[in-house]
Structure formats: C-alpha cells, structure tokens
C-alpha cells in the first residue's frame, strides 16, 4: 500500500483524493486501526455493558458499603470485571468475544462513512453550515458573533458526517447486540455476520437493520451540539477573563494565564464526561430497541414488554428508574426487590432467563 509520502509525490489524485485529502484520510486510517485494536481488546467490557443495559443481572448480590469502605449498607451487583469473569467461567474465553466480528465491522463501516462524508462536504459543500472565513483563527481573535457562527458551522458539519457514519454502522451494531442478547435465553439464532444479515432481511425486512437507530442518532446529535455549545460558551468566558488578566500587573497576568490554561484543560476532560452522562439513557433505549422484533427471549415477556416505539421504551425505563442501566462499572448497587436462589444466595428479583 502506498505511503502518504508516495501519494504526495504523484501528480494524479490517489483514490480520487488530492494531496490534502489524502493526508487527512491517511491520518484517519491510522486512528481507525488504533480504535479497532482497542475495541477488540475491550470487547468483553462492551459485552458486559450491553447485557447490563438489557437488564440481565443473573449473578448473586453481596451485602456491603455503597463505596466499598464507606457509605450506607446496600446490596451490590458484581462490578464489570467480576461480571466478565462470570461469563468466562460459564462460556470460556470465546464467550467473552461474542459479537466481536460485527462490532469491528460496525466500527470500520461507521468510520469510513464519516470520513467519506467529511471529504465530500469539504470538496462539494464548502459553505455548509456557514462560510469558512474564521475557521483558522484563534478564539481570542474572534468576536462573540464570529465565534458563534464558527461553532454552528463545525457542529452542523460534524452532525452530517456523524449521522451518515451512524446509519452505515447500525446494521452491524444491531447484529452485535442480538448476538450478545441471545445468550440471555441460551439461544443460537444469530451466528455469523453474513447469515445474520440474511436472517434479519428475511424476518423483518430492511427496517430490521435499523432497529433502535433513532434514539442512537438523537444521542449522537445531542452530544455534538452540547459539546460544541458548552465549549463555545466557556471559551468566550475564558477569552473575556484573559483580556482582563492582561490589563493587570505582570505577576497577576502570569498567574491568570496559568489559571485560564488549567481551566481549558479541565474543560476538555470534564465536558465529554458530563455530556455523555446526560445522553446515556439514549444508549440504553437504543440497545433495548435493537432486539425489538428479533423474536429473542429477551425481547418478550416475561423478560421485557414489547415496545411499539422507542418513546414507549423510554417511558417504561423512566417509570422504573432504569435509565442508567450499565452506566457504571464499579459501585453498582441494587435497590429493587430481591429473592433467594436455590443455592441460598441473594439475587435480583427481576425476571430473567438463566443459561
């Protein structure tokens, strides 16, 4: 495969890309490779998260402090790593990687879709979301109005690219979720990625590939606009503070700049965490709706009701206070009803299927 340096030396476009586009795609390709490797390694935790989001809590509860060493007494659920260990004990190493093929295909398809869309709109719709006049300026060089227009432009363009990537990847994500979900009822309905495609098309038609797409898209778009919007407001506030700091003495100016720099770094760390926590319920609803219409045990009573729309699912989870299923790996408490199993251990009393 030609390197980026070989691409730069050619006069003709590479894969239809000019020099600038080829560099961007090359960098994105490296990021995709890294993300795919990380996704493969961390897939057991992804599987655990999906099972938690589906409400599958078949393992014994323990009694202890909410925060391990302090806090109120409560029944606690296994943490994410203990949950994964239980899966390993039941189904072996390969059981930890159920659905990994579909997950990797989805990551690759989604990334390619987003990159291709970005290249397309950069080439053919340069002014989508607004003109390019302020795109390369520093924040402090812009007025509030100019900064706002740039924020809107970036958010719109990222929204378009993310929407395409999400739609392209959704069929693979549906397959991954269903392959994991069928473990709950000890079923073997979805096997390979290809056969799963054929099965979904036969039983549900085209729309089956996009089960749960809408809540996922809503979550993705809210994330983009919330991150860009919060960053815009905070950056403008920091620019104002910087201007006031520069009018002070040399000592106060240096201390002020350090404080502003620290605030920017903290913002980049905290904002994604806060926004993701806010939109997490959309991920839960999307996962549950992905098994809707599948005929799997987890999609029917007594495990769960059949939802006509994703809003029905949202309202059901909200009423039961289950909007944050799977949001935490550690410090997982159970405040619902309990039951005693045949082994005399304490379990969640929720309806479930045991392997």
Automatic annotation (TrEMBL):
PROSITE patterns assigned: SOLCAR (PS50920)
Membrane association type: Multi-pass membrane protein
Solcar repeats: 149-238
GO CC terms, sorted: mitochondrial outer membrane
SUPFAM superfamilies per record: Mitochondrial carrier
Cellular localization per UniProt: Mitochondrion outer membrane
Keywords annotated in UniProt: Membrane, Mitochondrion, Mitochondrion outer membrane, Repeat, Transmembrane, Transmembrane helix, Transport
Family, as annotated: Belongs to the mitochondrial carrier (TC 2.A.29) family.
Official protein name in the record: Mitochondrial carrier protein
Species this chain originates from: Plectus sambesii
